[in-house]
Amino acid sequence: MSYSLDAQEQVPITGNITLYNLANGLHNITVYAKDRFEIMGVSETIHFNIDPPEPFPTTLIVAVSAASVAVVAVGLVVYFRKLKGRK
């Protein structure tokens, strides 16, 4: 068995594989296999796209963290005012 990525030279394989570090963009792959009588079979060419990863939502994390701190601070102020009013 072998495969050809992006119409390049065939790469031999002996089982399952994972393709790593593919560049962003369009790619294609074709798989080849010979049976015990040396008859070659060829798969359809599969076309696929590697999209760049989504950026980390830093602004959203900061906004949610600031809002959480504000809610806790207001809750503590209310709690301590009530506690002080009971004395």
Radius of gyration: 29 Å
Unreliable residue stretches: none
Structural class: alpha+beta
Distance between the termini: 83 Å
**Fraction of residues in helix:** 25-40%
**Total count of domains:** 2
* Biggest pleated-sheet summary: 5 strands, antiparallel
Number of strands: 5
Helices and strands, in order, run as EEEEEH
Q: What's the overall geometry?
A: rod-shaped
Percent range for β-strand residues: 25-35%
Count helical runs.
1
Mean pLDDT over the residues: 89
Structure description:
- The longest helix has 28 residues, at 58-85.
- A hairpin with a 5-residue loop joins strand 3 (25-34) and strand 4.
- By secondary structure, the protein is an alpha+beta fold.
- The protein is rod-shaped and about 95 Å long.
- It folds into two domains: 2-50, no CATH class; 54-87.
- It has one helix and five strands; from the N terminus they run βββββα.
- Strands 1, 2, 3, 4 and 5 form a five-stranded antiparallel beta sheet that branches.
Keyword list:
single chain, 87 residues, 1 helix, alpha+beta, 2 domains, five-stranded antiparallel sheet, rod-shaped
